[in-house]
Design goal:
The protein is an alpha/beta fold. The protein has two domains: about 10-45 and about 300-395, Aspartate Aminotransferase, domain 1 (Alpha-Beta Complex); about 65-295, Aspartate Aminotransferase, domain 2 (3-Layer(aba) Sandwich), CATH 3.40.640. The protein is about 45% helix and about 15% strand. It is built from 13 helices and 13 strands. The chain has a seven-stranded mixed β-sheet, with helices on both faces. It has a two-stranded parallel sheet with strand order 1-12. It has a two-stranded antiparallel sheet with strand order 5-6. α8 links the parallel β8 (about 205-210) and β9. The longest helix is centred in the C-terminal third of the chain and has 33 residues, at about 300-330. The chain is globular, with a radius of gyration of 21 Å. The structure holds pyridoxal-5'-phosphate (PLP). Pyridoxal-5'-phosphate binds near residues 34 and 127. GO terms for molecular function: identical protein binding; L-aspartate:2-oxoglutarate aminotransferase activity; L-tyrosine-2-oxoglutarate transaminase activity; pyridoxal phosphate binding. This is Aromatic-amino-acid transaminase. Pfam families: Aminotran_1_2. Its cofactor is pyridoxal 5'-phosphate.
Length: about 400
C-alpha cells in the first residue's frame, strides 16, 4: 500500500530549529520560529493564561465533547474581540477550530464546496503554511505582488494592479495585521481600497488574523478587518489565539463567515463544522476554555491586554534599536524599513545563499526567505546580528 508513496518536502522551520539546536558553537542566534520568547529565551506563558488555567482547575470542569461547532460562547466572545466590539451589517457564522490553521482549512473546505473553481490569491510572500493548506484543500492558488525586494517596502502598485483584475471566482487571502513574513503594514487607505475593489470586482476577501494586538493595540489592529467587514457583502475570517494568548500547543482558533442572510449563515456554519467533524470530530477545548475565561472575566482580560501591550512595546523597542544599529554600522538609512513595519517579523534583504552564509559563518538562523523573528533577538546581540547581516549582504 505505502511502498511507492512520495516523501513530502521537509518542513523548513522544523529543520532549521533542529540545525540550530545541534549547532554546538557557544554563540548563536536562533530567529527562526514564530513564537514570542521572554528574555530568558523561553516561550512566554502569560500570567492571565496561568491564572485562568488555575481557576478552571479549581472549578473541576469535566472533559465532555463540545460538539463539532465547538463552544459557541467562546466563538461569540472571540468574534467580539476580533471585531473590537463593533457590529457589522449581515450575519456572522462561526465555529471553534484547532488553531487558526484549522480555521483556514474549514473555510477553504467550504469555499471548495461552494465553488470548486475558486482560486485563492496569496501575497508574495506569505505564511509558509498557507499554500500547502490550499493545495491540501484541493483548490488552485496564485500569488499577488506584495513586497518590493529592492526597497523591502510594499509593492502597492503591483498589488492593486493585480487585485483589480480579479473576479467572482477569486478569493484574496490577506493578513489582518502584522504580515507574516514581511511585517509590512497596510494603511487604512489600503484597506478601504481593498474593500472597494472587493465590492466592484466581487472577489471574496479571506482575512487571516493571527497577531491581533501585536501592531498598535487590540482595537487598532482590528481596523482593517472592520473596514472590509463594513463594506462587503461576504467575508471569510480565520482567527488564531496562538500568538496573542501564547497558547500555541493548545490549538485555539476559529473560523467565521459573514453572509447577507441568516439562512445562508446557518448553512455556512453547519458546513464549517464539517471540517472538524470529519477530521477530529470535535475541536480541542482546553485552550478555548482558557481564552473564554480570560475574555469573560474583566480582571483577567485587563491583565492579559496589559501583558500584550508590554509585548508590543518590547517589539517596537527592538525595531528601534535594530534600525539604530543598522544606521550606525552601515552609515545609511536603508534598514529604516524595519521601523515602519509591525509585528514580530521582518525580512532581511538577503538571498537564500546569503541566509545560509549567515548560519554557517555567523551562527545566525533565519528562514530562507530572509524572515527573522525580532522578538527572539537578545538585546545584547543586536550589534552582532547587524554586523553579521551587513558582512553577508554587502560583501
Ligand atoms: N496564520 C498566520 C499568518 C500565521 O503566521 C500563523 C502562525 O505562524 C498561523 C496562521 C497559524 O496559527 P495557529 O498556530 O493558530 O494554527
Amino acid at each position: 500500500m505505502f511502498a511507492n508513496i512520495p516523501a513530502p518536502a521537509s518542513d523548513e522551520i522544523i529543520d532549521l530549529m533542529a540545525r540550530s539546536s545541534n549547532d554546538e558553537r557557544a554563540f548563536k542566534v536562533d530567529l527562526t520560529v514564530g513564537v514570542y520568547k521572554d528574555s530568558n529565551d523561553n516561550t512566554l506563558l502569560m500570567k492571565a493564561v496561568k491564572e485562568a488555567d488555575q481557576l478552571l482547575a479549581k472549578a473541576g470542569r469535566n472533559k465532555s465533547y463540545v460538539g463539532s461547532k465547538g463552544d459557541l460562547e467562546y466563538v461569540q466572545l472571540l468574534q467580539e474581540l476580533v471585531l473590537a466590539n463593533q457590529s457589522v451589517n449581515g450575519y456572522i457564522s462561526g465555529v471553534q477550530t484547532a488553531g487558526g490553521s484549522g480555521g483556514l482549512r474549514a473555510i477553504l473546505d467550504v469555499i471548495k464546496l461552494a465553488n470548486p473553481d475558486a482560486k485563492i490569491w496569496v501575497s508574495d510572500p506569505t505564511y509558509a503554511n498557507h499554500i500547502p493548506t490550499i493545495i491540501a484543500a484541493g483548490l488552485a492558488y496564485e500569488e499577488y505582488p506584495f513586497i518590493d525586494h529592492k526597497t523591502m517596502m510594499l509593492d502597492e502598485q503591483g498589488m492593486f494592479n493585480r487585485l483589480e483584475k480579479l473576479g467572482k471566482n477569486d478569493v484574496v487571502l490577506l493578513h489582518g495585521s502584522c504580515h507574516n513574513p514581511s511585517g509590512l503594514r497596510l494603511t487604512s487607505q489600503h484597506w478601504q481600497q481593498i474593500a472597494q475593489l472587493s465590492n466592484s470586482t466581487h472577489f471574496l476577501p479571506l482575512i487571516d488574523t493571527a497577531y491581533q494586538g501585536f501592531a498598535d493595540g487590540l482595537t487598532e489592529d482590528a481596523a482593517g478587518l472592520l473596514t472590509v467587514a463594513n463594506t462587503v457583502e461576504r467575508l471569510a475570517l480565520c482567527v488564531s489565539c496562538s500568538k496573542n494568548f501564547g497558547v500555541y500547543s493548545d490549538r485555539v482558533g476559529a473560523a467565521y463567515i459573514l453572509s447577507p442572510t441568516e439562512e445562508e449563515a446557518n448553512t455556512v456554519q453547519a458546513q464549517l463544522a464539517i471540517m472538524s467533524k470529519t477530521t477530529y470530530w470535535v475541536p480541542p477545548s482546553n485552550g478555548a476554555e482558557i481564552v473564554k475565561t480570560i475574555l469573560k472575566t474583566p480582571a483577567l482580560k485587563k491583565m492579559w491586554s496589559d501583558e500584550l501591550s508590554q509585548i508590543n512595546v518590547k517589539i517596537k523597542g527592538i525595531r528601534a534599536k535594530l534600525c539604530a544599529a543598522f544606521r550606525q554600522h552601515s552609515g545609511d538609512n536603508y534598514f529604516d524599513y524595519i521601523l515602519s513595519q509591525e509585528g514580530m517579523f521582518a525580512m532581511l534583504p538577503a538571498s537564500e545563499e546569503q541566509m545560509e552564509l549567515l548560519r554557517v559563518d555567523y551562527g545566525v538562523y533565519g528562514l530562507n526567505n530572509g524572515r527573522i523573528n525580532l522578538a527572539s533577538i537578545p538585546e545584547q546581540d543586536i550589534d552582532y546580528l547587524v554586523t553579521s547581516v551587513l558582512a553577508v549582504t554587502r560583501a
